[in-house]
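Hi all, a correction to my earlier message: I attached the wrong file for Carboxymuconolactone decarboxylase. Here's the right sequence:
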Amino acid sequence: MDWTDFMAETEADITTLAREIPATAKAFATMGAAAKTNGALNEKTKEIMALGIAIATRCDSCIGFHVRSLVRLGITRDELCDALAMATYMGGGPSYAFSAKALKAFDTFSDRA
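and the right structure:
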């Protein structure tokens, strides 16, 4: 998968949907901003949790969004791989495969490809 093209298409699709359901889109964005606010857990920790959930639910676009956020927040490859090991442990074979996708996304978004 080309993560850059995939995410561009996903964002275009979400923009199209948001035009059709603006109140829902606005509420979802507000909820996301509130959930990511630093509190007892910082944003990076919360994004690692979100990535684990994205892997467990096998959501490619979610993996892309959260890996991209983690790159912006400065996650290292070692930190990411630790998180992917836990996701694999908790989710078994399917999470192993989707963790590999997350690592490829990291390589793309961090210019390691």
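Sorry for the mix-up. The mean pLDDT is 97.
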